[in-house]
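Q: Hi! First time asking for a complex rather than a single chain. Here are the components, and I think there are two in total. Is that enough to go on?
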Amino acid sequence: MTTAPARVRVAPSPTGDPHVGTAYMALFNKALADTTGGQFILRIEDTDRSRYVADSEAQIFDALAWLSLTPDEGPHKGGSCGPYRQSERLPLYKEAANRLISEGKAYKCYCTSDRLETLRKIQQAEKAKLLGYDGLCRGLSAEEVAKNDAEAKPCVVRFKMPREGEIDVRDLFRGRLTFIAAEQQDTVLLKSDGFPTYHLAMAVDDHAMGITHVIRAEEWIPSTPLHFELYRAFGWDAPVFAHMPLLRNKDKSKISKRKNPTSLLWYRDAGFLPEALRNFLGLMGFSLPNDQEIFSYEEFLKHFDLAKVNIGGPIFDLQKLHWLNGEYIRRLPAAELEKRLVEYAKRMMHRQREFADLPEDQLPTETFLRDFEVKRRVRSRVLGGLAPELMTSYEVNPQLLAPIISLIQERMHTLGEAADYLPMFFTRDFKYTPEDFIQKKGTLEDARNALAAAREMLATSDFEHPEWLQSMDEQAREKAEAMGLKLGPFLGPVRIAVTGSKVSPPLMESIRVLGKNEALRRIDAASAAI
RNA sequence: GGCCCCUUCAUCUAAUGGUUAGGAUACUGCCCUUUCAAGGCAGCGAUACGGGUUCGAAUCCCGUAGGGGUCACCA
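A: Yes, that's all I need. Here is the structure of the assembled complex.
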């Protein structure tokens, strides 16, 4: 579609955790840059001092890097169009605003926020159709302006929107959109603290940075006429605007942190793989030929075409992401999964401090899912207290994880879910009651017998024998049959004794990982306890 | 409320005027099985509604309904 190199950008505000919507926009912007041989720019829109969060910028950058959506230019990377932080470009905005004032295209407004608030209340009370600034200062004479300035009255700069006719804007997906000029208002361009608003900063920077395509969220459509008029006032060519659909909560409202995890840190902490999340975001409003749902970024690029974006707002379905992440985990080479798990555990050790001393069931991931009733099967966890234990053991014995990985790989959907399977390999004492050992239609006596039989079978076996697994299987069947049991009920008590749970990776493989001594010790402990 | 955008299974989507409207997630059942998974097979399930245009409409047009966004010295 577009063959000329596109210069595109993502322009987040450093006001909190890095947002999943930022990653979504970054993906589509970067894809356009990469398919056209252009550049993808990160610009930090830190023009709101009251909402500024110091860590935020670094986290945004880290999160994008985590997702391999690293910008070609940006505050951390440099580039020919810097600085890339708006707070460092203030003179540019001031100059632009002054230019508009001197050309009669903008004006100083001395209205106090009190007046504005009162105005708003009146408009609401009157159920006025048009809400917003009434243009009082638009008609101020030069003398009045001079007088106000002489008195050093604080002021903002407002744009003179045309008052007659229609304003046509173009959207790549929607074509021509027409707005009535009279329904527009004179928006603030420069705040009284000398910082620009989004509108001014965006126009000035996109022009200065040579942005060719503005791919942004749909929520910006209502201010697009302003943006077109601004470009016109400056005498600049407007870039192509493409308004992407908004990611949605389950109730179809714009995705929000009260109703959905929106922080990229959350996804990382829950153990989602960046390539899976990126793939999932690529599925939002876009699809590849032949029903292909799992794809690398390179494959995504091969088929990427802005014209094929679906503009109905997609609901962010955590359940499907969970499935997709499981697919990615299963496709990882075992050694790679091990590496990811170790990295994840290390990270969790640090994050744990930030999670304070919350009990495990109240860690952010768990709490969130419970509160918002995501299906119980989506149990994104964090390793929590297990991480230090895991890392200590791993440092002593780097061979530790490999055999375990092969047992849990096809069971995990997130790295965090390793927490469901790993404790049995590190914990020496389980909390169980005799009742836990009683199988359906069975007795405690059956359980004791099963433990004794299994103990004997294991004690006399050679764990190193290549056909150990097969041998154990055969013997277990024989012993079960001798006791008049099926294999399941026979192994049930053994599973509890050895793993501490009714649910575990395959029993014999798990026992082999534990080793003969530890397995026998656990069986003895259980026998003594019941 | 004004303005604007959107509308195919519960969810993500395919079908660029001719298909029994396809796939995936979720759900259900069966198979496999040593619990849990994973895997295999099958089932459930949609063109919001009403009018046109057309031999023929999910697809084009109009209307209605529904949903969403926006109306800050936030972005």
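A: Chain A has a mean pLDDT of 92. Let me know if you'd like any chain examined more closely.
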